[in-house]
């Protein structure tokens, strides 16, 4: 199996070029996760993308993310979020705000369902529906830009 370099893994989380053009809440997430470009992230799209993200960060290819691998994942996400906030601020959008619904679904504590300190691929993929539900404020089963912004 070919490993993704860390830069590629980081790019899986980042939609920099598109986000820079569309500085609105949720545009960064939609640009990254909406595989068919219809403006909505479905459970199927999120499941496939989470599989790619998991593979990118499973450096030792053992089918689970260790604390060390998760630390790299957290760092890549933090860098991605900081860059996105800076771009939004530079383009007149909100430079900061509540991203917990999006971010919370990526955190180790959310994904480590058996609390063993590791996140297996099954755990990570298995939490996709719950993550989408957290972000889907409209309750229509998909995440669109309308699901972001102020509560």
Give the SSE map.
Blueprint (H helix, E strand, L loop, with lengths): L5 H8 L2 H6 L5 H7 L6 E2 L1 H15 L6 E2 L1 H24 L9 H5 L3 H4 L7 E2 H6 L1 H8 L7 E2 L7
Antiparallel strand pairs: 1-4, 2-3
Structure description:
The protein is mainly α and 151 residues long. The protein has one domain: Recoverin, domain 1 (Orthogonal Bundle), CATH 1.10.238. 55% of the residues lie in helices and 5% in strands. The chain has helices at residues 6-13, 16-21, 27-33, 43-57, 67-90, 100-104, 108-111, 121-126, 128-135; strands at 40-41, 64-65, 119-120, 143-144. The longest helix is centred in the middle third of the chain and has 24 residues, at 67-90. It starts with 5 loop residues before the first helix and ends in a 7-residue tail after the last strand. The model is unreliable at 4-11, 15-20 and 95-101 (pLDDT under 50).
């Amino acid at each position: 199996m070919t490993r993704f370099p860390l830069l590629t893994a980081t790019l899986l989380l980042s939609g920099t070029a598109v986000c820079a053009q569309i500085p609105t809440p949720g545009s960064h997430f939609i640009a990254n996760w909406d595989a068919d470009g219809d403006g909505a992230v479905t459970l199927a799209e999120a499941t496939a993308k989470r599989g790619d993200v998991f593979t990118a960060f499973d450096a030792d290819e053992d089918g689970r993310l260790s604390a060390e691998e998760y630390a790299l994942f957290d760092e890549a996400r933090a860098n991605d979020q900081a860059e996105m906030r800076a771009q939004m601020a530079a383009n007149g959008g909100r430079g900061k705000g509540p991203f917990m619904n999006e971010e919370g679904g990526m955190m180790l504590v959310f994904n480590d369902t058996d609390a063993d300190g590791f996140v297996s691929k099954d755990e990570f993929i298995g939490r996709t529906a719950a993550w989408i539900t957290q972000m889907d404020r409209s309750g229509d089963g998909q995440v669109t830009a309308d699901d972001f912004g102020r509560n």
